[in-house]
Amino acid sequence: MREILIIAGEASGDLHGAGVAERLRALRPEVPLVGMGGDRMAAAGVQLFERAEGVVGFVEVLKHLPAHLRLLREVKAHLRSGRVGLIILIDYPGFNLRVARAAHDVGVPVLYYITPQVWAWKPGRLRMMAEVITRAAVILPFEEQLLRDAGIDTTFVGHPLLDRAQELPDRAEARRRLGLPVDREVLALFPGSRAQEIERHLQAFEAVARELQRRRPGLEVVVSVAPTIQLDASHVPFPMVRAQSFDVLRAADVALCKSGTTTLEAAVAGCPCAVVYKTSRITYEIAKRLVSIPHIGLLNVVAGREVAPEFVQEAFTTQAVADALHPLFGDGSPARARMLDGMAEVRRLLGVPGAAGRVAEMAASMLPADGAR
Fold first, then answer.
1. Which residue, 226, 266, 292, 350, could crosslink 159 as a Cys pair with Cβ 3.0–4.6 Å?
2. Which range marks the domain in which residue 52 is found?
3. pTM of the predicted structure, to 2 decimals
């Protein structure tokens, strides 16, 4: 019995890969699952030959290039072994598109789950993707037609975070779980899930929190820490929470989020937020010339308009972000009500729960008969 190879390069991919692996084990328990990922995939029954953590940014990736090249050689050797019946690639395009090419070249079918964001930048990748991807499972509603128009067999499976949000606690219960007072306002900080994001964002996030505490006496502040990050508590002036991000968002009145999936989580949880991002000057100058969309926050991208305010690079100042967040406190706030209406629209556009199960069914249908090539 040939195996399914699952490749995820960072924390979010590990989470999504684990969801698919769990459902594959139920559908096809006899098929071995191997791959590259993290603790969640391992716990879901994937035999890992490499543990991996992703990086972002042009300068940052260059620093990790030798490790990437070593991993690519290892994956290519695995594909040439003849043991792989199907490869599932999850996000991580700089690495996984090279793997897709290698799989295509040796006749291994490719299922790409959470495809490169060609709608934002590098649209030229579409031609190559059409050559090497057998099927694509996309998680944003507008991606299906875009990839189909490029000749890629594509299915919108819904967003996987909806699976994690089916039983959200109310505010009181979320605060009880986290040990937060029920009768105070709470601000949640989400500075990122990668070390270089924390380095660039954390102090600036803390400054915004201090300014809001000055304006709103008694404001509680918590820092959501990704499982992949180790922070010295002596360097963080607020309580750190290692918990489901949805619990933190449900407990909070307002959140300050680094751009990325957290902004969609905030929309699903119904937690008004502001979206910010800082990177190296070189990375920013390159990206500014390549990115072709007006928004960086995924909730705004899905909505097609600015639901939550965005602050990028020099626009990210303490006063500007505090000015945007301050009116979002208070259940009677008109600004809060407008944002919650926009977030409800985003939730509707993200589809219905069950993405991992749909991807697993796609994978099971793509497995060649034993002995076929």
1. 350
2. 3-160+354-366
3. 0.84
